[in-house]
# Entry
Amino acid sequence: MDLALAPETLARWQFGITTVYHFLFVPLTISLAALVAGLQTAWVRTEKEKYLRATKFWGKLFLINIAMGVVTGIVQEFQFGMNWSDYSRFVGDVFGAPLAFEALIAFFFESTFIGLWIFGWDKLPKKIHLACIWMVSIGTLLSAYFILAANSWMQHPVGYRINEEKGRAELTDFWLVLTQNTTLNQVFHSFSAAFLTGGAFMVGIAAFHLMRKKHIPVMRTSLRLGLVTLAVGGLFTAVSGDTLGKVMYEQQPMKMAAAEALWDGEEPAPFSVFAYGDVDEGHNKVALEIPGLLSFLAHSDFESYVPGINDTNEALREKFGPGDYKPIVPVAYWGFRWMIGFGMASFSLGLLGLWLTRKRFLLPAAHRTGEDEVPLLVLLKKPLGSRLTRLYWLLALWTMAFPLIANSWGWIFTEMGRQPWVVYGVMQTRDAVSPGVSTAEVITSMSVFTLLYAVLAVIEVKLLAKYVKAGPPELGESDLNPPTKLGGDHRDADKPMAFSY
Amino acid sequence: MELHDVWFVLIAVLWIGYFFLEGFDFGVGVLTRLLARDRAEKRVLINTIGPVWDGNEVWLLTAGGATFAAFPEWYATLFSGFYLPLLVILVCLIVRGVAFEYRAKRPEEHWQRNWETAIFWTSLIPAFLWGVAFGNIVRGVKIDAEFEYVGTVWDLLNPYALLGGLVTLSLFTFHGTVFTALKTVGEIRARARKLALRVGLVTAVLALVFLLWTQADRGDGTSLVAMAVAVAALVAALAANQAGREGWSFALSGVTIVAAVAMLFLTLFPNVMPSTLDADWSLTVTNASSSPYTLKIMTWLAVIATPLVMLYQGWTYWVFRKRIGTQHIADPVH
# Structure
């Protein structure tokens, strides 16, 4: 069959579209849950109104976002069986367990406590209501952990054996699946990238309001929290990216060779800044390189040998038989660069912002601003002029989505870089698709999902924009006097609910 | 009882939990057209399930994930075989979730009306399709020696399965109606009780035919007992509704769902998905299950986590135990 319409190609496109889309919402959900929980904690502890207003404002955006994350996640739970039935049969014994753990532990946590949090403002005492959002946050982290353990097993299968008689992989050590270095590094990297994403989101929106001098106390706090989150998240993303890269050089040398378009092994190996290559011929036509850096990234020294695509392909042929074991090199190469580029651009902007808005450290006393003033952006001794200040706010606003792009390319890189394997070294993607599902069926489902997701994206973004522009809500009497009893105080039986759909 | 038998029971428990809980919230979704007279009443209905529908839906995700882990072959055959109906269900659940969350987020009339229309259809369609799916699972479908479904989508729309769909649709609607009577105050509560009688009678007739058909086809002693319980509970639920005992009526309609789904699983065992082509090609608890090691880990998980889940979900229902009426719904938008 024509490759473009091969069931494998279509199923991969569908998986790619639905999963990348789903993952637009995941990192924001993870980080915003924790940030909202942090803000609400600040309110409970200090009783300062700005924290409650910030909680409600970011909480609303968080809810608009998590709704999309939850519903697009439903597809993920069933898609393996629908489109990848041979995969499911072969690996279900190993791969199913973390998914079941995720559902039974994390999903219930998230979904139950989010309901309590949304509707609980006038039903739960302050501290119990606060505990609910922390439970949601724990749920999002656990959920990510289990699914990353499952994905890490596809990257680097451990703790299993092949049962020849049944023709499938069987779990032998679940603990190892949960704690192998691939899992821990992926979790570290994804979590920090999630906070990088949430930090940039918060900074961008705070910048939007501060530029207009609106909602200053809330947005000032938000800017600070966002910048710290962005900087810390960015730093950890870089560190964990480096360690994950080193792990990948051990476990999937092909992926990393493709990420560098390093066709032939070199000692020491250079880091490629720009390359344009001929994939059929197996070499680069244009290459701009930094000598020795790749050796350092792979093995922490500037001298060592790094194998290239061609050598690795040869080695894999010897091990697994004839075939082509390289991924689509340009996708891996550019995916890797866009991931790093967009992620680190946001990180830099965060570091810059943290310096510009510093509160005391090396800041002339005259430029320190009060709670209800827009912070001055001070580069050295003097504040930036109004045009440069505006430029920084605009940059923060317009690069808000950079981490989303970085996240998407990170996943495209890591998944496509593993090809032709679905489970590295164990099962190839072409053997994983559902044999009984027809091309017409996959085209149908792919079109339906793509169309539906596109429509929902428009609705979601418009809704987010509406609530971003509206700013933090004014607080009412009941907001400031939360109930003292479970189920709410029964002062007035006909009192309207604090929140209703 | 071996571990794969334990897991057959646990999967049944997860589906029963799902149908019990999401059953009434599907029903409430259907009632937005059947019972509500105006927008305010629609909002009352939607808000009776507001805090809980999401948690209810997780029972489905857990049933899916647990089937994947405990019976990979079942998971693979079922979801690749029932591809298009499952696609429809997934689309409905996606739109439904967004509809609940987004409906009140804009004041425009057409925005709210569109989401309300969505809530009605995306509740009705899955409520029907789950019955069709389970009708086919227990009746058996065309499965070949490789455990692949080789029938077409039209084969799934056979009379028995379609009747199963009508049963789940009417039963869930009844369950939702008695739930509404239990959770609301004012005029809507009285009307819910009146409607419950009519929906309940239709459900009783449909369910009786379907369960008798099932019993005649594949039943044995235990399934007969389950059937008797289901039918008796339904009748008792109607009686309790007439007597104005709303709590009892809801509990009993729940028992009906538990017993009816249990009956289906009883007639299924030890198969999990029988083949109509050759009995040797049927998926069973033995040939579809995971290794003992995986099942052991999964059992530990289930033993520890499931009671906890029931505990804190139960607590949620207690927190939101207060009845609501139109007076409790504040401004139309916020």
Q: What stands out?
A: Chain A has a mean pLDDT of 92. Strands of chain A lie at 160-163, 168-171, 271-278, 283-290, 421-423, 427-428. The first helix of chain A runs from residue 7 to 46. Chain A touches chain B through 79 residues (CB under 8 Å).
